[in-house]
Design brief:
The chain is α+β, with helices and mostly antiparallel strands. Strands 1-2-3-5-4 form a five-stranded mixed beta barrel. The protein contains two helices and six strands. It is globular, with a radius of gyration of 17 Å. It is 24% helix and 35% strand.
């Protein structure tokens, strides 16, 4: 009985963790329309599950999710591609939750160089 309860609880916990991870890693949490923002890079993280930038804009501090590590590398964004203090133009999808300052980038432009994380999704306005 205790063993069955333990297995059930473990399976339930794993399911909840996986569903939360999948929900964030998809696009369901973002707005459909693309937007652009310019900011100054305050930190850079290149690693799993998603490389990201922290930037400061006129609207405050934002977290920028890039592609997964492979997509980010394939876009040419690797260690040394940017530095804290660089100005970045982000094109992407903001969080549907307006209280979050979080954007999923489809492109980042730094010093005239474009890094296309999701080239098939880029919409030029």
């Amino acid at each position: 009985m205790i063993k069955t309860a333990w297995i059930t609880l473990t399976a339930l916990a794993a399911t909840l963790l996986l569903s939360n991870a999948l929900a964030h890693h998809g696009w369901d949490w973002t707005n459909d329309e693309q937007t652009e923002m310019t900011g100054t890079i305050t930190s850079i993280y290149i690693g799993p599950p998603h490389p990201r930038l922290e930037i400061t804009t006129d609207d405050g501090a934002w977290t920028v999710d890039l592609g997964n590590p492979r997509q980010t590398r394939d876009a040419g964004f690797v260690e040394g591609s940017a530095a804290v203090g660089d100005t970045v133009l982000i094109r992407g999808h903001r969080s549907a939750d307006n209280s979050e300052k979080l954007i999923k980038a489809v492109r980042a432009t730094i010093d005239g160089r474009q890094f296309d994380f999701y080239p098939d999704l880029i919409r030029e306005d």
